[in-house]
Design a protein that fits this description.
With 391 residues, the protein is of the alpha/beta class. Helix content is 41%, strand content 15%. Strand 4, helix 4 and strand 5 form a beta-alpha-beta unit.
Length: 391
């Protein structure tokens, strides 16, 4: 552009001068022609990136419950207050005889996404089979294909206000995560009001599983593993089946993902000792090796309730073996499980899980290439946010 005083040169002047110079052969000091300049600018323009669609954060909650009047309001209030509320929450009342039905009806009247289903009681509720039967009573009526995620949620929990948003963000960052959760803490003896700011004790759940009280699944993964086994230890079998197919199953003890378990694990049915013994049967049913069960029982002796909790787990396993109780009829699964458990004993759990996830990555990429969102050439986000090669 040529300026004379403060007057901006008219681009037409430059173009006309350029054309006149071409006819006369004269060379004058003028601006470059407008149209060639425009073409040059166009070649330098960066191509427009196609905007990524907004992630689908629709999630379905299903909550089996029976006689939960003591804690259900706290669960209801913490879910209703979530930064991203559920698209649908189906609560299956499995024969409550206390005030639970009235409380559920109150909240369902106030919130459109809450639906309460009544399931006829089958008598004494069997922990494991009974809970999962109630879950499927809701799941089969929920049109689950409409949702990106599905979660089995207990109603004796209290959650941070952005719990589900944080869970989905972490799963969006790594499409290999099939099931994921935070960690449960139960109120200590001095925490009479059972609040987040009082004494809290970790339940000591392993990092290689999502927690059964709040099983949050990518629906596609949930369908591929065949859903939940209708027996005790359903919440361990599902995670091992995830890894068999290359998915990642995990929980993380991050402060923002800690939630209150208002009733300690295994104490909701005939007491905590019976719950630990039932866990021992679950390990037998799943196919756990005797050596791994021994190590697990000894470890649990160091966690509350000290000594007796781990001893009850070991006895539950041994009694099941002596009585030759039924086991999961899946030889391929049992072989996979025991190889993993042996590696845990030799390498430690963190190393064994990391090695197995790396080994199974090729299978996941083969079957789920459509889910990969590149973070760079040849990579996607890894299990801890680090890149994992898809080669």
């Amino acid at each position: 552009m040529v300026f004379s005083g403060t007057r901006r040169a008219d681009p037409k002047d430059s173009v006309e001068a350029h054309l006149e110079n071409r006819q006369t052969g004269e060379r004058t000091r003028t601006s470059p022609p407008l149209y060639p300049l425009r073409r040059w600018c166009q070649t330098r323009r960066r191509p427009m990136e196609t905007p990524r669609p907004a992630p689908d954060r629709s999630y379905l909650l299903i909550s089996p419950c029976r006689d939960e009047a003591q804690f259900v309001r706290r669960t209801l209030d913490s879910v209703v207050a979530q930064s991203i509320p559920p698209a649908k929450w189906i609560i299956v009342d499995d024969g409550s005889t206390d005030e639970t039905p009235e409380i559920l009806s109150e909240y369902a009247a106030e919130h459109d996404f809450i639906e309460v289903l009544r399931k006829p009681s089958d008598g004494e509720r069997k922990v494991g089979p009974g809970v999962i039967a109630a879950f499927y009573h809701g799941y089969e009526r929920a049109q689950p294909e409409r949702y990106e995620y599905v979660c089995k949620l207990d109603v004796d929990l209290e959650l941070p206000g952005d719990y589900f948003e944080r869970i989905m963000r972490q799963m969006e960052a790594n499409p290999r995560i099939g099931t994921f959760s935070g960690k449960p803490y139960y109120p200590g003896p001095s925490n009479v009001r059972k609040t987040f700011d009082g004494e809290l004790i970790s339940e000591g759940c392993g990092n290689d599983t999502s927690v059964g009280a709040i099983k949050f699944f990518r629906r596609r993964c949930f369908e591929e593993i065949g859903g939940f086994e209708r027996e005790v230890m359903w919440d361990g079998i599902d995670c091992h089946r995830c890894r068999m197919l290359g998915w990642i199953a995990e929980s993380r003890d991050e402060p923002e993902l800690r939630f209150l378990h208002l009733r300690p694990m295994g104490s909701s049915h005939k007491g905590i000792i019976t719950g630990r013994k039932r866990h021992g049967f679950g390990q037998w049913f799943m196919g756990t090796s005797p050596l791994y069960m021994l190590a697990s029982s000894i470890f649990r002796m160091s966690r509350p309730p000290f000594i007796v909790g781990g001893a009850a787990m070991g006895w539950g396993y041994l009694e099941s073996a002596l009585k030759r109780k039924r086991r999961l009829d899946d030889p391929e699964f049992r072989s996979f499980l025991r190889k993993y458990q042996f590696d845990v004993l030799v390498k430690g759990k963190s190393r064994a899980v990391a090695d197995l996830n790396e080994k199974q990555a090729a299978r996941w990429f083969r079957d789920h290439g459509d889910m990969v969102q590149p973070a760079g050439p040849g990579t996607v986000s890894g299990a801890s946010g680090s890149p994992v090669s898809n080669a």
